[in-house]
Amino acid sequence: MRIGIVGGAGRMGQMLIREVLGSKGAILAGATERPGNPALGRDLGTLVGLEPAGVVLTDDAAALFAAADAVIDFTAPAATLAHADLAVAHSTALIVGTTGLSADDHARLAQAATKTPLVVSANFSLGVTLLAGLVRKVAATLGPDWDIEIVEMHHKHKVDAPSGTALALGRAAADGRGVDLATVKDAVRDGHTGARKPGDIGFATLRGGDVVGDHTVMFATEAERLELSHKAGSRAIFARGAVRAALWVAGKPAGLYSMDDVLGL
Ligand code: NAD
Question: Average pLDDT, stretch 146-173?
Answer without folding.
Answer: 97
